[in-house]
Known about the structure:
CATH topology of the largest domain: Aspartate Aminotransferase, domain 2
Strand content: 15-25%
Mean pLDDT: 97
CATH architecture of the largest domain: 3-Layer(aba) Sandwich
Bound molecules: pyridoxal-5'-phosphate
Amino acid sequence: MTNVPWPLLPGRTPASVASAEGAYFNMKDGRRVLDAAGGAVVASIGHGRKEVADAIHAAVMNATYLIPPWLTPEREALVDELTGHWLPDYLTRIHLCSGGSESNESALKIAIQYHASRGEPDRNIILARDLSYHGTTISTAAVSGHPGRKRGLETFLQDFPRIATPYPLRCPLGPYHPDTADYYVQSLIDTIERVGANNIAALIAEPLNGSSGGAITPPENYWNRVQKILKDNGILLVIDEVMTGFGRCGEKFGIDLYDIRPDILAAGKGLAAGYAPIGGVYTTDEVARSIADAGLEVMFHTYAALPQSCAAAATVLGIVRRESLVHRSKTLGAALKERLQSRFGQHPNVAEIRGEGMFIGIEVVRDRETLERFATEDTMTSKMIAAGMKAGAFFYPGGTGEVRDILCIGAPFTIGEPEMDIIETALAAALAVPAGTKT
Length: 439
Ligand SMILES: Cc1ncc(COP(=O)(O)O)c(C=O)c1O
């Protein structure tokens, strides 16, 4: 098939995949390419597990569609799986959606409705971070610190007060400065003072930065201080774990890495690992009860909690537990990061190799001493991804606006030594692009 009107915008040639199995794509041209990104950091158990396909089939045959608030065996099984094995014990209330954007949108609505239910309807401002991604609906795009995905919409999207996202490598005080945490915590303090605590409903943030910055991890002593400030000011904490949740970062959730206790948590991607569209919002009894007692509604999306999506998610999470894949994400991710650091850590174009578990970011620069980036016109990210694909692995692009040229690895947790070899080879090929660029 040639000249298909796909994707929407002409002039972009998509890769064409005939099929996929395990951690590999079989490309239409016959090549085999490792899915080192898990698609968009989604496919945590790999492609083509029959057990999940069978569960989806059985769910469709059992009861294809029911309104989301009703219970079915598939919904009950997922709720049991989530509350019994995944969620922290204080996040007891579950609202399912069809993906990450819907989950974050619902999370923001719940935060605002919570304050309204307590007689504070004017506490309706959401604090956001300057480097972040929370989704592609109008509200979640607006709240995102992702200039690249907001181009052409700037005049339409609401502006939100922003605090600086911790970026230890590029902290304005200097790379890895001992006062890095102070600097970024001060940004929160100043913003609350400027906006007025009584006007702020919540802060939305990823525990560690997703693809907008490519797995940037916060400094020690950041989250504990942020949480205390929010609590002291009656501001809810909404944690977006759409990318980092369900084992991606070597723990059940990113909150476990930093001892974060959110009021509301949103998570998607790894929940059904790409087998079905599903995301979820999880909150406390107190938040849910307050909204209910005030007689407010939390409306569902028509396709929320679709039985076949719930069956896929419950089966995927069961596999992740049975095969100890969260632990594997931790140990394998650490081994892979160490391997990449030892081979490429001193590469003249590598500024940093970072991340947690099976979520790793490689930041590429023109000059590792000054951290000067390549120009946008150099389109370094696309060139490196193309070179990686040619050498056998797909990496996910990271960065937005000024922050650019970051390769993300988000491979299935099931990969082993042969796949780590492929990642190393493909990364060497990708890094040959900046190395071969004349300065
Ligand atoms: C942290 C984060 N939040 C939200 C989203 C949006 O999720 P979705 O694309 O499923 O709507 C993404 C997607 O990449 C994400 O990484």
